[in-house]
Recover the amino acids of this structure.
């Protein structure tokens, strides 16, 4: 810290807040710690009574918080995101495209464990929209050693800590099973729910086939949609363990690889995830998707729409945070479900 005359302070960095008091009008911070003094600031500072200022004295090997924040931003930045203005030594990353946010949690923790610096992000694997905040970066003190920031770059590695996987356009086929719907004994209420959720994304529904519980017919319906160009198949009904619920076996008989039949999520335990020829997702949705506000489907669909391959380990990890509290007023995704 160094004391200099205010008239000579242009370009220097303030080491403390400066308060301005105008009787009956204003009392508050006029210039915050870390502010870089400009030519226009000089008359204001003098009017406050500041003939002298305490400024940060630039030393070899030391970085101001704004410089350090830029380094942390560069550690994070990737395609489809841009920086905010630097404010009080903080830079935020803003989404420029809708998609799924991916965070390398392990490397993020390593950087944050270095001390005197921080990167805070949104949750991994959650959908974001253009304009959303993705992360914020800053150092804790006003200045920091260049050596420490070099260490942060080393720990972070060559790849950005976060990325956005943009949503893709997808053609979708819906296969609904159940004799009660097929014979018209009850009205299909599954289809409208699925279409409503798909409408949140860039999708084209090729159609909906309503079948009884014949597994061969279900298998053929799935294959027919794939032959029509479907890039996502959603099967509803027949997903329990009752003997006449044959949808899981019908999906398997297409030749699709079953990732998991079952997920540690409530609502949504009887969910099935598979991939046909390792590329086309075939989802088996449990009955809860029809009536519950949010389910396993809401956690999986964004990743499917971004072509983010979901593994058994990914599904297993949903057990931590996989209990929906069925709140009277649903605030998803701004809640703990799926996090």
């Amino acid at each position: 810290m160094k004391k200099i005359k205010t008239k000579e302070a242009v370009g220097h960095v303030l080491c403390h807040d400066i308060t301005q008091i105008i009787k009956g009008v204003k009392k508050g911070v006029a210039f915050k710690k870390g502010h870089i003094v400009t030519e226009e600031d000089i008359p204001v500072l003098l009017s406050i009574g500041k003939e002298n200022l305490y400024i940060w004295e630039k030393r070899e090997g030391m970085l101001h918080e704004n410089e350090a924040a830029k380094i942390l931003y560069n550690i994070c930045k990737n395609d489809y995101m841009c920086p905010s203005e630097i404010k009080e030594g903080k830079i935020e990353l803003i989404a420029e495209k809708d998609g799924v946010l991916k965070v390398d949690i392990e490397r993020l923790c390593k950087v944050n464990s270095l001390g005197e610096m921080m990167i805070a992000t949104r949750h991994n694997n959650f959908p974001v929209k253009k304009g959303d905040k993705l992360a914020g970066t800053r150092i804790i003190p006003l200045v920091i050693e260049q050596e420490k920031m070099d260490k942060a770059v080393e720990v972070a590695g060559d790849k950005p800590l976060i990325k956005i996987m943009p949503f893709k356009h997808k053609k979708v086929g819906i296969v609904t099973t159940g004799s009660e719907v097929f014979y018209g004994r009850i009205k299909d209420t599954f289809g409208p729910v699925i279409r409503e959720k798909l409408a949140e994304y860039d999708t084209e529904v090729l159609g909906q086939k309503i079948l009884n519980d014949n597994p061969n017919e279900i298998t053929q319906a799935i294959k027919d949609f794939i032959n029509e160009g479907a890039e996502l198949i959603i099967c509803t009904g027949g997903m329990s363990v009752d003997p006449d619920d044959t949808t899981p076996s019908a999906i398997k008989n297409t030749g699709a690889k079953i990732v998991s039949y079952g997920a540690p999520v409530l609502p949504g335990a009887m969910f099935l995830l598979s991939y046909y020829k390792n590329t086309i997702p075939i989802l088996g949705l449990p009955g809860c998707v029809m009536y519950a506000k949010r389910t396993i489907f809401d956690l999986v669909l964004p990743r499917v729409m971004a072509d983010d391959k979901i593994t058994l380990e990914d599904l297993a990890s949903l057990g931590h945070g996989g209990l929906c509290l069925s709140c009277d007023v649903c605030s998803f995704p701004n809640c703990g479900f799926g996090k």
